[in-house]
UniProtKB/TrEMBL annotation:
Coiled coil: none annotated. One of its GO terms (cellular component) is extracellular region. Pfam families: Sushi, WAP. It comes from Adineta ricciae (Rotifer). Residues 53-113 form the Sushi domain. This is Sushi domain-containing protein. Keywords: Disulfide bond, Sushi. One of its GO terms (molecular function) is peptidase inhibitor activity. InterPro entries: Sushi/SCR/CCP_sf, Sushi_SCR_CCP_dom, WAP_dom.
Length: 117
């Protein structure tokens, strides 16, 4: 998402093992390309991200749905919801990241019948 405060958007040390992070930056001039902007890329911190990118739409969980804050565009939040009588397992939200994938990617949310855990 479009934040330019490094203290608010630090790069996590071990994140590069889990996903592709782009060049770190402080402002757009660090990116050296008119096609990239210096933006907060979640766990990757402030990074040079290609403008206009999007992530593939996610498959909704069985007995649930996904509500997108800005379709599948970079920075969009996907919120998982379950039908009545079902409970969400895993993260409620995922975000479209600069590597064009939804994070966190280590756990995909799903719906289980209430009382079946």
């Amino acid at each position: 998402y479009w934040i330019r405060d490094l203290s608010y958007c630090p790069r996590k040390r071990d994140v590069t093992r889990q996903r592709q992070c782009f060049k770190s930056c402080f402002d757009d001039s660090d990116c050296r390309s008119r096609y990239r902007s210096c933006v907060c890329d979640y766990d990757c911190g402030m990074s040079c991200v290609k403008r206009g990118i999007s992530c593939p739409f996610l498959a909704p969980p069985d007995h649930g749905r996904i509500v997108y804050s800005n379709e599948n565009k970079f920075g969009s939040r996907a919120t998982y919801e379950c039908e009545a009588g079902f409970v969400l397992e895993g993260p409620k939200h995922r975000h479209c990241q600069g590597d064009m994938w939804w994070g966190p990617s280590d756990s995909v949310p799903y719906c289980t019948k209430e009382g079946m855990k």
